[in-house]
Known about the structure:
There is one protein chain. The protein has 5 helices and 11 strands, in the order E-E-H-H-H-E-E-E-E-E-H-H-E-E-E-E. The chain starts with 10 loop residues before the first strand and ends in a 14-residue tail after the last strand. It has a single domain (3-119, 138-296), classed as Hotdog Thioesterase (Thiol Ester Dehydrase, Chain A). It has helices at residues 29-34, 52-59, 63-66, 160-169, 192-204, and strands at 11-12, 16-17, 67-73, 82-87, 97-103, 106-118, 150-156, 224-233, 244-255, 259-269, 275-286. Strands 1, 2, 3, 4, 5, 6, 7, 8, 9, 10 and 11 form an 11-stranded antiparallel sheet that branches. It is of the alpha+beta class.
Amino acid sequence: xxxxxxxxxxxxxxxxxxxxxxxxxxxxxxxxxxxxxxxxxxxxxxxxxxxxxxxxxxxxxxxxxxxxxxxxxxxxxxxxxxxxxxxxxxxxxxxxxxxxxxxxxxxxxxxxxxxxxxxxxxxxxxxxxxxxxxxxxxxxxxxxxxxxxxxxxxxxxxxxxxxxxxxxxxxxxxxxxxxxxxxxxxxxxxxxxxxxxxxxxxxxxxxxxxxxxxxxxxxxxxxxxxxxxxxxxxxxxxxxxxxxxxxxxxxxxxxxxxxxxxxxxxxxxxxxxxxxxxxxxxxxxxxxxxxxxxxxxxxx
Length: 300
């Protein structure tokens, strides 16, 4: 083997502290522990930004224009624990590759894993994953929810001020200069996490009022958690302080021993009607937090 044939090394991001600034649901330490978690859970969306600098290094700035990351979450991180992103070298320039996040103090503790790609996302982690859906009539929280169900339309504007606040308080723990100042496309862009939050807002409104009735009237205040994310740019990037339209559709429903879950897709268009970014998301609802599962209820 010549030196020019030497395989490229994996890219390993800096060690970052995962911080949770919400006190709702599983992010509240007491409620999280009642539901079986080690402590205040950090939302999976807060890990997405870890990968962006490494993916720009791998694919170039084009990653924010037509790249994707596709991640399935394996383990919960508790607020205050450290996380680190790893990107394997693509087998060829621009090809899809494997990515994962881990706890650097416990390297075999995998937070999430999946793929990153550029242009063609048809073989991504979530595009090829068996969604393990089931007959919706067997469900209690998601009874009657079917693939193809429309989840509505929302006008939304990712806030540069809110993104700056998230960077300042550490919940967005991998800032890039492009998020706050000039970028190759002009003004500041939305981070991957901000972009995902913009689309998820279709289901949670302004953060004060939950719109889970858009999914099912049975969910109520059941605690939810994120199970997977795919963010795929088509005509990116997403800019802060610009208006977008988000629509959503159910892809499938299913259950595990502890959760009922919803797979859904979101599509974001700009003011000209052009698709900017798409998301596939897995939203889990914890059975033990719902009065529809009295046999799983824990005493307060």
